[in-house]
Amino acid sequence: MRVISTAPIAGQKPGTSGLRKKTRTFMEQRYLENFIQSTLDVVREDCGGSLAGKRLVVGGDGRYFNREAIQTILQIAAGNGVGRVWIAQGGILSTPAMSCVIRARGAVGGIVLSASHNPGGIDADFGVKYNASNGGPAPEEITDRIYRRTTEITEYRVVEGSVNIDQLGSSKLGDTEVVVFDPLDDYAALMQQIFDFPKLRKFLAGGFRMCFDAMNGVTGPFAKHIFLDLLGAPAGSVIRATPLEDFGGEHPDPNLTYAAELVAKLASDDAPDFGAACDGDGDRNLILGRKCFVSPGDSLAVIAELAPAAIPAYHPGLAGVARSMPTSMAADRVAASLGIPCFETPTGWKFFGSLLDAGKITICGEESFGTGSNHVREKDGLWAVLAWLSILAHTGKSVDQVLRDHWTKFGRSYYQRYDYEGVSAEGANAMFADLRGKLGSLAGTPLAGSKISHADDFSYTDPVNGATAANQGTRIFLENGSRVILRLSGTGTEGATLRMYFESYSKDDIAQDAEAKIRPLAAAVCALLDLEARLGRKAPDVIT
Ligand code: G16
Questions:
Q1: From the CA of 348, how far away is ligand 1's center (Å)?
Q2: Domain total for the chain?
Q3: Which of 125, 349, 376, 418 has the most ligand 1 atoms within 8 A of CB, as the residue to mutate?
Q4: Which of 75, 78, 91, 299 sits a CA distance of 20 to 30 A from 367?
Q5: Is the domain of 168 the same as that of 54?
Q6: Per-residue b/e over 303-313, b at no fewer than 16 CB within 10 Å?
Q7: Could you give the residue numbers annotated as active site?
Q8: What is the pLDDT of residues 193-230, one digit of tens each?
């Protein structure tokens, strides 16, 4: 074991989901080393002072630098005396599969190498996230301590050497046992416990056509195994299924903008019945029907409504549901009709962890194309696809019909998110400071044919452990029931990304075009903020 001197590197504070930076930043000398040593220092503290006998899982979404980073992490894990390190074969492990493996194998935690939906490559993004023993992203109490540690670090420890991560089997690095495992096994087994695979197999054999787009990300091998091998879908049903280091030069974010090829396929005359996509690390999902897009808030609500009937694992019913604050309130209405609680949390899957661990919720989701349940502690893209397939098999309806029936029963939350990417952080912060300054006096201001009823900054107190989080998004409520939320993204790596979320509820008028419905509200808010003058942007980069 070698002890190597180092010094703190500024800016290693994890954001919404781990530490995300430019790949070249992670490749700088000691950047990754410092962060991993700091992480293991905190894990060791929480393990009573020693990592001997402890198990750690390591894997990533296969992006550029994944393989090198795994070797570095292994060396530091061995230098810190971790008992056993499980590495996914080829370093390929989706984020939900990581959560599954940590839980199934009793690991102390896992290190996920991913910048999720951000592009990959030497000039793109990389990320590192620590997941705790419940399988979920470390809560802020832990990430804050990791960050503090990065500001004090003086040395890191390594055992030099390397391991063939493509070859299944066990070997040693120092005293650490290194096990390269097949990442598909644990995850596919868990999916088969949750869903009725024989029923889905029969459904797919009956002429139903699906197209799953892995976006050159990590879900390709998982999707091929589940949809083709286990469920018997025909070969062309899974596309872009080989994980590529740069995701084919594309943005592996499953939304209407970046999954344009799939969207076009579903809008064509020969469209399959069902389309779906996942992001680079497999935790986000996009659900499409023929000429039909399922907004993430509606997806959560529909799954909450129909999972108890359509999916064996949820036959006993749901304990509760949760959504992040900016996510549409469609799930609230389902929860009310089921007589179960609906929790509203800040943006970030980590905030669902305590509710899931305490058994207070069964299903949860976010507007950022994340949906999941208590089966793991991450959002789970393929789980969401299997959930929708189960709903379609159970109801015998099209995606479009399922949505319409849901809206007829509950009304519809028209919903859109506008993203302004890479704007000046200074300009965005100044805009927020001004807005915050006048929150108290906005009530009564006319806006898009209604009036502002109140406005505030969202603060959260975790109902399980009392942890608090302030300034989690600025909310503007209108007298007609509409909501607008503004916040800065915590996952970008360049400048600032402004997100504006618009929601407008209608009980009976359910068949409008969402974009047309939201446009006047969005225009009025942009004028209120003087957005064009402040940020120099006429239109958002992405609308989802
Ligand atoms: C991460 C988090 C999500 C969050 C999303 C967007 O997703 O896990 O909980 O909703 O970022 O965060 P922001 O609006 O701050 O960019 P992922 O898929 O990037 O890990």
A1: 6
A2: 3
A3: 349
A4: 91
A5: yes
A6: bbbbbbebbeb
A7: 116
A8: 999 999 999 999 999 999 999 999 999 999 999 999 99
